[in-house]
Write a structure and sequence with these properties.
Elements: E1 3-7, E2 14-18, E3 21-25, H1 40-63, E4 71-77, E5 86-92, H2 99-109, H3 113-119
Antiparallel strand pairs: 1-2, 2-3, 4-5
């Protein structure tokens, strides 16, 4: 997987490219941005929320469960001195879904690829290319 960020001159706004898709990232005004797009940290929370929802929906589809309008909210608090990064997740499911299905879906939620990445050990390979 590859993502590319290219700065728009004169601002903190960046054009993002992922495969054939185009997105934007920016910072809120209080951080010097134009607030024209989500911040990188907001995109991280959105990645976790969407990956969780998609993983749950794919599992439910394989089981033949109708999860209706499943929604996942993620709140992200970056690490502060002496405390870890904190993600809070709220999953809204239809009340008609049986308890066993809800419990299993919550177990599956913790297995989405983004959740596993954030939970596990991460390694970085960084290099500079001069242009």
């Amino acid at each position: 997987m590859k993502a590319t960020a290219t700065r728009r001159h004169g601002s903190l706004k960046h054009d993002l490219k992922v495969r054939t898709h185009r997105l934007l990232a920016d910072e809120p005004r209080e951080n010097g941005g134009e607030d024209s797009a989500p911040s990188p940290q907001e995109l991280l929370a959105a990645s976790l929320a969407s990956c969780t929802a998609i993983t749950m929906e794919m599992y439910a589809a394989r089981k033949g469960w109708d999860v209706g309008d499943l929604e996942v909210d993620v709140t992200y608090e970056p690490a502060q001195r002496g405390s870890p990064t904190r993600f809070s997740m709220e999953v809204r499911m239809p009340k008609e879904l049986p308890d066993e299905a809800r419990e299993r879906l919550m177990q599956i939620a913790a297995k989405c690829p983004v959740h596993r990445t954030l939970e596990g050990e991460v390694m970085f390979d960084e290099r500079v290319t001069l242009t």
